[in-house]
Design goal:
Blueprint (H helix, E strand, L loop, with lengths): L4 E2 L2 H7 L9 E6 L7 E5 L2 E6 L8 E6 L5 E7 L11 E8 L2 E8 L3 H13 L1
Parallel strand pairs: 1-2
Antiparallel strand pairs: 2-3, 3-4, 4-5, 6-7, 7-8
């Protein structure tokens, strides 16, 4: 069994009941921004825990990897004067014509998520 990469233990514990016995959890990344949640990646799907979905309700949204048509990662390395101050990264996942953007704290999170998703697609 592979080790799960995660940012916060409570997010890992919160998503664990949603992971089916036939799938393997690979990562859980904390999302950047107010009212956001976290993104979990399994070998079969993306699970987005959205605290801001439908107003004040919380929702668990699933994107099967088999439906993903495009994936892109982008990083923001900060400014010239403070290269580590505002470091973030974005992952864009498209399902047909609909695209979802996820923003993470840290320059490497989107790229790691990208790699895990690509591994699941190939």
């Amino acid at each position: 069994m592979e080790e799960v990469v995660y940012d916060k233990r409570e997010q890992l514990e919160k998503i664990s009941p949603f992971v089916r016995p036939q799938e393997q959890l690979r990562a859980v990344f904390d999302m950047k921004g107010g009212g956001t949640g976290f993104l979990a990646i399994t070998d079969k799907r993306l699970i987005f825990y959205d605290k801001a979905f439908l107003g004040r309700r919380k929702a668990v949204v699933t994107i099967p990897l088999s439906k993903v048509t495009r994936v892109a990662s982008e990083d923001d390395r900060g400014t010239f004067l403070s290269p580590k101050l505002f470091v973030s990264s974005r992952l864009t996942v498209c399902v047909g014509s609909e695209c979802y953007e996820f923003e993470f704290r840290g320059a490497d999170k989107a790229h790691l998520a990208y790699e895990l998703i690509i591994d699941g697609l190939l």
